[in-house]
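Following up on my earlier thread - several people asked me to post the actual chain instead of describing it. Fair enough. Here it is, all 480 residues.
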Amino acid sequence: MVKICCIGAGYVGGPTMAVIALKCPAIEVVVVDIAVARIAAWNSDQLPIYEPGLEDVVKQCRGKNLFFSTEVEKHVSEADIIFVSVNTPTKTRGLGAGKAADLTYWESAARMIADVSKNDKIVVEKSTVPVKTAEAIEKILTHNSKGIKYQILSNPEFLAEGTAIQDLFNPDRVLIGGRETPEGQKAIQALKAVYAHWVPEDKIICTNLWSAELSKLAANAFLAQRISSVNAMSALCEATGADVAQVSNAIGKDSRIGRKFLNASVGFGGSCFQKDILNLVYICECNGLTEVANYWKQVIKVNDYQKSRFVNRVVSSMFNTVSGKKIAILGFAFKKDTGDTRETPALDVCKGLLGDKAHLSIYDPQVTEDQIQRDLSMNKYDWDHPIHLQPMSPTAMKQLNVVWDAYEATKGAHGICVLTEWDEFKTLDFKRIYDNMQKPAFVFDGRNIVDVEKLREIGFIVYSIGKPIDGWLKDMPAVA
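Reply from S.P.:
Thanks for posting it. Predicted structure:
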């Protein structure tokens, strides 16, 4: 029996290994992590992450050929193929601070593999890593090999949170990069054989190591660039009276452009986009490609601009102050159908409003109060370290209240900020909400999901990103 071990039981490792176990019943799959609470959650009825369809997959396989364990060294030692899916946070100090990936956890994983291995291994990069990481890992393993042979493969994930299980069941492509040697090609075929249990062969792309590593960074950079592009257009639409939804629809009909990732919003979030672009910037700078680095930096600058523009619009609309005012925050996750809050634009919006002394009442159907309090107290990039190395929950902020009902969040509020596109927010009884709010009552739609005209008929003053500006707001321009 082929044995697979995945180091890291997070958003990538857990779902990916669960699907491999489901599709390959003859393969034993073990997910290992040193975080005891996280492994306990994977073995319980309350999984540590929310992802539609994940629970069903885990329950079908767990205890049969899918296992979750804290016995890291034991299972790494026994495995034929080792996936490494550990954190690669952005460095906060030293060379490349603020841009380069911190490979501390990757390096310690590689050294541990070298220490405990007794037979030849295929080591697979599953985390998003900078180009040439495989070369560094290769050096650590070969210099500590004790006669054992290792082949390093790059197999980047292309999962979108909220649709990760479907993305794994029916991927656009599976990318496997390896050395162009007989041994490297043999390792590629071994991993390809795993995916071939359910992925059509023409969707499994084999490349050299560096192409596979760079393809992941490039894919995320291109997607983020599309979001920043449409968000830049949203600012222009507001200034000219155009409607960004109509503009997006018109350009999306062009088959060369396509419709995806053209929804204007308060900004992109998630664990990968910003981190990967910063990584790309750093690699470009290290290779003397200043103009290329500056191009990708601008994608992040526009994203930051969009978030600050939104906060400024809220404050300026409400008589230039939100001090002491109750603002309801609907949605804290970075997108719907996930509880993930990493780099969520809601974080910057909330910090901006708290900085102006607003009182926030937050509701999100999948994010806990503990997570929200933790996120708002963390320094930048702290979120990307293993959970046991993150700051413990702080004392609750006085200006912050987390509730479990949208109507409770909006009761007595001066304004509402819609920051996640949860489906339930589209069907709220806004007449009931309006009746229980302070007047004038404001709605700031950061996701363009509300019916603007209907809300204005009720009596709301509405700001929706990239839409023609409400007469009230024209007299109070946002200065970003």
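The chain has a mean pLDDT of 91. That should answer part of your original question.
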